[in-house]
């Protein structure tokens, strides 16, 4: 390399280093600006799960359940969140009803009580279905009080199941867990109606 081309070589090398270093800083800045998955989560998740309606022992499970569904976890509109949570409550209550019906067929100790509970869960599903139909009306705010009443009645159905089991002196942790899970989802929906 001649002495006249040496300064040009260092200038080009210096520009390459500047461009390379600047590019990596821009990439680092973009990474710092991009929100983490937790930051993209709607504040409504915490409002629903950290409320007094959701039992303290269920709050972490409520949050986990809401975060597991990207539509629910990112929803920022309370009306749309109500629809998503009622739909989830329908799904969970149906699963609970099916579980109790299967248990009633295989349980010789108290099949009538389990069938009765499954019936109450079916009634809860019907109440949630009614609420969902009303929410999908063009102007759900007009009927929000009666829709909320459907959710309350669904909770009453779960109470009837629990009361019936207690009156029959039935202590079954599996059944209790099934009903408790349906109850948690009913409470989540109930809280969503006060948003």
Write structural notes for this entry.
This protein has 9 helices and no strands. The chain is mainly alpha-helical. The longest helix is centred in the middle third of the chain and has 29 residues, at 78-106.
Short description:
The chain is mainly α and 195 residues long. It has helices at residues 6-33, 37-40, 43-49, 59-67, 70-74, 78-106, 111-135, 144-167, 173-192. The protein is elongated, with a radius of gyration of 27 Å.
Topology:
Layout: H1 6-33, H2 37-40, H3 43-49, H4 59-67, H5 70-74, H6 78-106, H7 111-135, H8 144-167, H9 173-192
Number of strands: 0
Q: Based on helices, strands and strand pairing, what is the structural class? A: mainly alpha
Oligomer: single chain
The biggest sheet, with number of strands, parallel, antiparallel or mixed sense and barrel status, is:
none
SSE pattern: HHHHHHHHH
Shape, per Cα inertia axes:
elongated
Uncertain runs:
25-39
The average pLDDT score comes to 83
What is the CA-atom radius of gyration, in angstroms?
Answer: 27 Å
